[in-house]
């Protein structure tokens, strides 16, 4: 792993990668709102206005069997209607569907640095991952995971986590943990390095799931499953292989 200063430099590169996708942020927010639109809102219980009243204290349901059955039937109807609306929108709205299915975008090499700083980013339901090729004097390639559940440290630090991924036994690994200020996100980043691009790209699967927990596996930091990984790998490899 490189020094913290190098990691900070790559954090700036990641900010550029994410910045190139800022146009998607409004769409992502709209998708999130759409999810809320179709979600059922549970009714309040007693409607108390007292700030100290949580709305449930002293609530003692007294339903007949018929009333309870009607409530259950209504709940099933509402759930079925919510699912129908979701499926209908998935079929007719590509942007809405992409929020759930996930999508890739790519950052090409810089004009003055052919083959360097190539990146592929996958976004799905609030979590993202960036596969970043080497750049500058460093041969390292990087995998960056970020989302709401990732800790946000005051300064870059090393963090021991438990990593589960498709095709591999669970591993205890040491990663760098960084804040993501200025990138439009409200979570932190977990950064892992590979000795070179081939080592990272060769490990990419077409459908690849990542789960990251704290070292004792008591807290979930991150979950994401990408699809289309082989096409993304090939496009990234082609970018990295471009030389002046």
Beta fraction of the residues? Answer: 25-35%
**CATH class descriptor of the domain at 4-32 and 102-240:** Mainly Beta
Number of strands: 9
CATH topology of the domain at 4-32 and 102-240: Immunoglobulin-like
What is the CATH architecture assignment of the domain at 4-32 and 102-240?
Answer: Sandwich
- The radius of gyration over CA amounts to 22 Å
Total helices: the number is: 6
The arrangement of helices and strands along the chain is HHHHEEEEEEEHEEH
Strands of the largest sheet, in order across it? 1-2-3-4-7-6-5-8-9
Distance between the termini: 28 Å
Binned, the helix content reads 25-40%
Major β-sheet, in short?
9 strands, antiparallel
Sum up the overall morphology in one term.
Answer: elongated
Mean residue pLDDT: 77
- Uncertain segments: 1-5, 15-26, 38-48
Q: From the helix content, strand content and strand pairing, which structural class follows?
A: alpha+beta
């Amino acid at each position: 792993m490189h020094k913290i200063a190098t990691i900070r430099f790559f954090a700036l590169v990641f900010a550029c990668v994410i910045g190139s996708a800022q146009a998607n942020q409004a769409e992502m927010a709209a998708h999130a709102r759409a999810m809320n639109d179709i979600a059922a809102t549970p009714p309040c219980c007693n409607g108390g206005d007292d700030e100290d009243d949580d709305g449930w204290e002293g609530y003692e349901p007294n339903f007949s069997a018929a009333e309870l059955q009607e409530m259950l039937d209504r709940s099933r109807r509402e759930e079925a209607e919510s699912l129908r609306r979701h499926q209908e929108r998935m079929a007719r709205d590509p942007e809405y569907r992409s929020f759930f299915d996930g999508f890739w975008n790519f950052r090409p090499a810089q004009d003055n640095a052919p083959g360097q700083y190539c990146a592929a980013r996958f976004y799905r339901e609030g979590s993202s991952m960036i596969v970043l090729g080497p750049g500058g004097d460093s041969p390292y390639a990087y995998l960056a995971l970020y989302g709401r559940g990732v800790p946000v440290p005051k300064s870059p630090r090393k963090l021991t986590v438990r990593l589960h991924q498709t095709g591999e036994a669970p591993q205890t690994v040491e990663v760098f943990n960084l804040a993501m200020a200025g990138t439009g996100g409200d979570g932190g980043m977990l950064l892992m390095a590979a000795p070179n691009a081939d080592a990272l790209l060769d490990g990419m699967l077409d459908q690849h799931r990542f789960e990251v927990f704290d070292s004792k596996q008591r807290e979930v930091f991150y979950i994401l499953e990408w699809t289309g990984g082989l096409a993304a790998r090939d496009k990234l490899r082609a970018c990295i292989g471009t030389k002046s």
